[in-house]
Design goal:
Elements lengths: L7 H7 L5 E6 L2 H17 L4 E4 L3 H13 L6 E4 L7 H11 L10 H22 L2 E3 L2 E2 H9 L7 H7 L9 H17 L4 H5 L9 H4 L4 H59 L14 H26 L15 H17 L1 H11 L8 H20 L13 H23 L5 H9 L2 H10 L7 H16 L8 H40 L1 H7 L11 H7 L1 H7 L2 E4 L14 E5 L6 H4 L4 E7 L9 E3 L18 H13 L6 E5 L2 E5 L3 H10 L6 E2 L6 H9 L5 E6 L13 H13 L4 E3 L2 H6 L3 H15 L8 E5 L1
Parallel strand pairs: 1-8, 1-9, 2-6, 2-7, 3-6, 7-8, 11-13, 13-15, 14-15
Antiparallel strand pairs: 4-5, 10-11, 10-12
Length: 777
């Protein structure tokens, strides 16, 4: 796991302000990791730490951990009963001169971390927390959309209805929904005949062969079906290019805003450079020239961005920046123009859709659609059913779709005209009473069977709400890796800043040593050997204040420090030392004692629950010995985010699902023929999980949403949850990451692909029955 991230248990211990703390542990490695993080926290807070452990193995592990964290230079390990040797003094002497080596601090990493953190936070906040419609979040609306999205006909509505006429609020939806429900109760198909009776003169065959009414109806029905199928393809194509246009534009605007943010940061960082304030002679220095190059580079990037945005017609003027002092105001102007451009996206999208044709949008689909429409029109004209001739006289894809919709409508009306249905006055009265929006929606729905109207409207309305609030920021493995990298680097920056402050204080400490401890000064600075050998316990006791500032963390093997200076070291950490000298406890500001979980003396305030398992153990590798400990660890990892899963059982598999009820219902329906059963018991969920995981004869799948075990939790847990997933992968897990946005765009097809993959694996001959697979939905 990342050296700078901790579990909830560790986090509580690391950040406690209590002065007396007992901690029980089951695994030495987790306890040592907690100690190191506590020492780092103390170091950043400018506090010193003394660690007592008589176990040489633990001492070695602590030293190795300090080295892994690149903190070996702040620690000192001594054996209290050993004599201070010349080699020991030489090491201390080297530490006294170590202050000239400063650590590198790169503020770019901190910027990138916070910038990415804001994006991730906004993504999950908008997805799971923001109520966007009818007191529901985007994710909650998605479930409602998926339950009704089986029909593909809703795509046709994209080409029939200009969505910018709607407000997409609860009142509007309820009004239109109720009007559609009333319309279904009143409406009869034959109303269209009387409303468009002039089309009767258009029918050629009915005049010449009135006895062939059934054959005519059948021919019109077939033409209507062909036209509707083509219209659905047009609607799907228009919906897709609209989605791609909005997605591309959104990503482009985010990229530009990212560039603006970094340029603003670079200018601010440039202005903070003290080299900028020096005198005239400094203009001849290398630093000044380098600074001038940086300014020119920033100006070039700003001007390049201006040209790019002007060419894309986002900026109306192309005024280049000439000096760096103009850059900040220009960047603010560009940012405001980008925001204006984003706000005009619905209008831009509508204009773009209207402008698309096969001359400016090269896609073989357009040729196929136009060819199919022309073949349909040729078929209609050849049939001789109508007196008039139909032709396609526009290149615009939008107008072609509208023309085809009109043709569908005409065919429907002709069919109704043949049937010669009569009264529709109640219908006309109803249409006059309802609002214009409802009229437009109902008019668009009339090409479908009335039994589908409500479901089509709901699906289309939900899809537009989801589209209007979709976030195209991508959560994926690369983003997670970058996020973790920036987090580690940011933490390193904090530690390095603390190191540099500590190194600066060493210089002050050494300069005052001659006066405060002349004997130690002669030994360290003047290399004068001591007249008498001295034990480390006496040396440490005598020079505690000096050594604790030189080494913020000191590791010793016993508590023989009776004469220790009061308050010289801030915190004492005892590792499995139940009999620590009570007299020295009051000499520290705080005391943390670590005890094994089964120790009878333990009165634990905190508990580290991870159990020890053999190194590199997975569910596939481990059997009887240590398996229960591994299984408990896996259960604890899964449940630590307060999101209890549902557990399902198949004949040769167990599925642990952290998903919504809708996903669980889909899964249950898909695996119904395989005998899936939901496990219910009076046991705790942890006991149920352990029972499922301990079984070596079944496969175990874990299904989650949006890359995390609990996406709705506090987003500060994102990196830690991702690391938990990695740990589960190390235990033998296989991951399929599928997010909510993909589920929306595929209308849930990705779920079926996941289920099909599981089913195929379960039915294969080479089933690895102890494999743990995590499916992310």
């Amino acid at each position: 796991m990342s050296q700078f991230l901790s579990s909830k248990e560790e986090h509580a211990i690391i950040n406690t302000s209590r002065t007396l703390v007992n901690v029980s542990y089951k695994d030495d490695d987790q306890a040592i990791h907690t100690i190191i993080l506590r020492v780092i926290s103390n170091f950043i807070d400018k506090k010193s730490t003394l660690i007592i452990s008589s176990d040489t193995n633990i001492q070695s592990k602590l030293q190795a951990a300090f080295q892994a964290f690149s903190l070996s230079d702040i620690g000192l390990k001594v054996s209290m009963q050993h004599t201070v040797t010349e080699s020991d003094l030489h090491s201390v002497r080297e530490r006294c001169t170590f202050s000239q080596y400063k650590e590198n601090v790169n503020p770019d990493y901190t910027f990138h971390f916070h910038h990415l953190h804001e994006k991730v936070t906004a993504y999950y906040h908008n997805l799971r927390n923001v109520k966007i419609w009818n007191d529901k979040t985007w994710r909650e609306i998605l479930d409602g959309y998926l339950t009704k999205s089986e029909s593909e006909n809703s795509n046709i509505l994209n080409s029939l209805i200009e969505s910018d006429i709607l407000d997409f609020d609860e009142t509007e939806f309820d009004t239109i929904y109720q009007n559609i429900a009333d319309a279904i109760f009143i409406y009869e198909r034959d109303f269209e005949y009387l409303s468009q009776h002039q089309f009767s003169d258009n029918l050629n065959t009915i005049k010449n062969k009135p006895e062939d009414i059934h054959q005519l109806s059948y021919a019109i029905f077939n033409l209507h079906e062909q036209a509707q199928n083509i219209a659905e393809r047009y609607g799907h194509f228009l919906s897709e290019i609209e989605r791609l246009f909005v997605k591309t534009a959104s990503k482009y605007s985010m990229d530009v805003l990212d560039r603006l943010a970094f340029l603003t940061f670079s200018i601010g960082n440039l202005n903070k450079n003290p080299e900028n304030t020096k005198g005239f002679l400094h203009t001849f220095s290398g630093a000044y020239k380098e600074n001038l190059k940086t300014e020119q580079k920033i100006i070039a990037e700003v001007n390049g961005l201006i040209i790019q945005l002007y060419e894309k017609k986002i900026l109306v003027n192309q005024v280049p920046v000439k000096v760096i002092t103009e850059a900040s105001a220009t960047l603010e102007y560009i940012k405001s123009e980008i925001e204006v451009w984003q706000n005009k996206m619905p209008e831009l999208t509508s204009d773009y859709i209207k402008s698309v044709n096969k001359l400016n949008y090269h896609d073989s689909t357009l040729d196929d659609l136009e060819k199919d429409v022309q073949l349909l029109l040729d078929q209609i004209n050849t049939s001789g059913i109508f007196n008039q001739k139909f032709e396609l006289n526009t290149l615009s894809v939008k107008k072609q779709a509208e023309h085809l919709t009109g043709l569908i409508y005409d065919l429907e009306v002709m069919s109704l005209n043949i049937q010669k249905n009569l009264t529709f006055y109640q219908w006309v009265s109803f249409l006059q009473e309802i609002d214009e929006k409802s009229n437009i929606i109902i008019k668009s729905l009339k090409i479908f069977d009335p039994s589908e109207w409500l479901i089509l409207f709901e699906v289309w309305y939900y899809s537009k709400i989801l589209e209007n609030h979709i976030n195209y920021f991508e959560i994926n493995e690369d983003m997670s890796a970058n996020y973790l990298h920036f987090s580690d680097k940011k933490s390193e920056n904090i530690i390095n800043e603390s190191k540099n402050e500590w190194l600066d204080k060493i210089e002050i400490l050494i300069s005052g040593l001659k006066k405060s401890s002349p004997g130690l000064y002669r030994s360290l600075i003047k290399n004068k050997k001591s007249d008498h050998p001295v034990l480390w316990k006496h040396f440490l006791t005598k020079y505690t204040g000096f050594l604790s500032q030189l080494y913020p963390c000191i590791i010793i093997d016993n508590d023989d420090l009776v004469d220790l200076e009061n308050g010289a070291i801030d915190e004492l950490i005892c590792y499995n030392e139940p009999n620590v000298n009570i007299d020295i406890m009051n000499k520290f500001g705080s005391l943390i004692s670590f005890f094994p979980y089964n120790d009878t003396m333990n009165n634990s305030g905190y508990s580290l629950s991870k159990e020890h398992v053999p190194s590199y153990s997975t569910l596939q590798q481990i059997h009887t010995t240590g398996r229960i400990s591994l299984v408990r660890n896996i259960a604890d990892e899964m449940l630590q985010f307060n999101n209890n899963p549902s557990v399902f059982r198949l004949r040769n598999a167990t599925i642990i699902s952290f998903c919504s009820d809708y996903y669980n219902d889909c899964m249950h329906e898909y695996f119904y023929t395989l005998g899936i059963k939901k496990l219910t018991s009076e046991e705790t969920i942890k006991e149920t999980l352990i029972g499922a995981l301990i079984d070596t004869d079944t496969m175990v799948y874990v299904m989650t949403e949006d890359y995390l075990l609990h996406p709705a939790t506090n987003n500060s847990d994102f990196l830690y949850q991702r690391l938990v997933v990695k740990r589960l992968e190390e235990f033998g897990c296989i991951f399929h990451t599928i997010d909510s946005r993909v589920t929306f765009e595929s209308k849930g097809l990705n779920l079926l692909n996941i289920f099909a993959g599981i089913k195929s694996e379960l039915l294969s001959e080479n089933i690895i029955k102890t494999q743990l697979t995590i499916e992310f939905l």
